[in-house]
Amino acid sequence: GKSDKLEEPEANKAVAGASSKPLVGVIMGSDSDLPVMSLGCNILKSFGVPFEVTIVSAHRTPQRMVKYATEAPERGLRCIIAGAGGAAHLPGMVAAMTPLPVIGVPVKGSTLDGVDSLYSIVQMPRGVPVATVAINNATNAALLAVRILGSFDPVYFSKMAKYMSEMEDGVLEKAERLGS
Ligand code: RP5
Questions:
Q1: Dmax over Cα atoms in the chain, in whole Å?
Q2: Dist CA 47 CA 159 (whole Å)
Q3: Residue 178 confidence class, pLDDT cut points 50, 70, 90
Q4: Ligand 1 probe mutation, 4, 6, 27, 30, most atoms within 8 A of CB
């Protein structure tokens, strides 16, 4: 990280709405990913999804990554959102160590426009899938997590349907104002 290292409590404090009985785990390789990843946390919060957020680095804290991934199911997580930049191994390594669905967010770094992160995450070899969203699009990662929860929980299913219909209304209103 560039400045102060964020330990767990600080990382959770940095994102209001983080819960003690999380269904979704939001992890990232570095505190420098937090500005991007907090966009996803805001979505989870707005849908009322219990989530947690912390820093887990595949390269700098490999033991912590193994512990996080292997303990995630027994802690009640249903889905993991993992953001990382550069040689972004985190989502793929976590997916290799848990049967839970993993959504990868390629975080744009200071070089290569985030294409390095995108390729690292999207090019998972056969057998270990990572659902990859667009560069820096933690918003879509969180929306996908809500849809995963909605596939077995009607509460989140309805919330997603409402979100989609409001989004549609928003566009139709704008179109109307333009006179078409
Ligand atoms: C990755 O390296 C992190 O996910 C981050 O995107 C990138 C740079 O990390 P810092 O050097 O800013 O800590 O592991």
A1: 58
A2: 7
A3: very high
A4: 30
Provide the ipTM.
0.96
- Choice from 32, 34, 93, 136 to test ligand 1 binding pocket (greatest atom count within 8 A of CB): 32
**3-class SS letters over 31-69:** HHHHHHHHHHHHHHHHCCCCEEEEECCCCCCHHHHHHHH
> What is the 126 CA–ligand 1 centroid distance (Å)?
26
Q: How far apart are CA 146 and CA 157, in angstroms?
A: 8
User: Which amino acid, one-letter code, is at 21?
Assistant: K
The set of residues, in sequence order, having a beta carbon less than 8 Å from that of 37 and lying 6+ positions away, is 26, 28, 53, 81, 83, 105, 107, 138
Q: What is the pTM of this model?
A: 0.91
Return the CATH number of the domain spanning residue range 8-153: 3.40.50.1970
pLDDT digits (tens, 9 = 90+) for 36-93: 999 999 999 999 999 999 999 999 999 999 999 999 999 999 999 999 999 999 999 9
Q: Please compute Rg for the chain using Cα positions.
A: 17
